[in-house]
Amino acid sequence: MEKTKTQDLESIRKAPLIAILITGAFAAILNQTLLATAIPHIMDDLAITANTAQWLTTVFMLVNGVMIPITAFLIEKFTTRGLFLTAMGLFGIGTIICAIAPTFSILILGRVVQASGAGIMMPLMQTVFFVIFPLEKRGQAMGLFGMVIAFAPAIGPTLSGWLVENYPWRSLFYVIIPIAVIDFILAYFLLKNVTKRSFPKVDVLSIILSTFGFGGILFGFSSAGDAGWGSWHVMLSIIVGIVSLILFITRQFRLERPILEFKVFRYGIFTLSTIMGVIVFISMIGGATILPIYMQNMHDFTALESGLMLLPGAILMGIMNPINGWIFDKVGAKWLAITGLSIVTIATILFTDLSGTTSFTYLVVVNACRMLGISMVMMPVTTAGLNQLPGRLIPHGTAMSNTMRQVSGSIGTALLVTIMTSSALDTKEYGIEGEIHGVNVAFIVASVLSGIGVVLAFFLKKTSPEKEKTD
């Protein structure tokens, strides 16, 4: 076996490898959540409108969503070390561009470069974990991965709020630069090649179709909350996305070496785990979107208070992820998922009776319970699905699960926000309680989704890698 292909896994020191990958993923996710509270400051400094400023978050999500589906191809094409250094290098360069950007267009360019690197990191990190850890320890490894996903968004808004109150908005990027530079240097000296290369050919048409497919759907659903479903650019974007995605999927089945292998859905537990992952991610992202709107627009809480309300739940999720990973390695995902989704469903039902007098403490405790339940489901279920895949398909499985997470987050947020606004009652007749009625209806839909997840969880079973299924 070539030295550049793979190292002897037994001789590889896992601790530095894990630390480098987790630091990179942490920086990427932290960066994604930092800008939320800084948008007004950037608008004032660069003299731009709110609609224009929103592109700073939209373009990052779009490029991220476009990069993730092609990471399976990149992982098979390039070495672990080379791909991570490229991803972290792009992310670091993009961060520097953002920090010194004299105009909005340069700032947008920086966000695009950042996202092109960040989109590679998450699937690469998951794939490496599945290569270096044996089956019986993958739960703990994915628990660490889940801890990063939880802690970075927990810290982001609070850190961002403090920085923009005390320093210029550019400080948000200057905080990230040292992390990216140090991680790049450590990766250069310590990172080893562990993924196998199969040197697939570049299929340019597939990449174009993937870009328009996933990008169109993400943009369309993300814009629907603000522009409305009747907006021509929302409908056009979704239609172009769906048509491109159908053509992309059809082409992948015809190619000998597809860019993204949809045959992963031939594995029952992987398919089931992906559906459950979508359900629980919609529940998580929907709650994180709707609760701050309710608190700030309908209940007179400040932006800081709405951020602090979400903080205990995110911290609890971060703490519990490694613990749930350890439990998964002992007993599997089934009863973790059943228990977790039951908790999510009950806690979501408790959010269906909100009012203008609901206390801050109630919101904190119920949200923390929801996040506890989500932590019992998300990583264990993802790991159970990926465990069923043969080694060659793991990069495709990680790319697919991350892509579904991006798409479901976008669609779920748009769906729940639309339900919230369309279900609101006339404020002239019902006052603020009329608006809150829409929030309650959105949570009723979310609780029904979670309930479906509970039923699906009973069909989960412990998995191990299967032989690749052929036509």
From TrEMBL:
The keyword Transport applies. Residues 17-465 form the Major facilitator superfamily (MFS) profile domain. It comes from the Bacteria. GO terms for molecular function: transmembrane transporter activity. It is found in: Cell membrane. Its main location: membrane. Pfam families: MFS_1. Keywords: Cell membrane, Membrane, Transmembrane, Transmembrane helix, Transport. GO terms for cellular component: plasma membrane. The chain crosses the membrane at residues 20-43, 55-75, 82-109, 115-135, 142-160, 172-191, 203-224, 230-249, 269-295, 307-328, 335-354, 360-386, 407-425, 437-460. This is Multidrug efflux MFS transporter. It comes from Aquibacillus koreensis. The lineage of its organism: Bacteria, Bacillati, Bacillota, Bacilli, Bacillales.
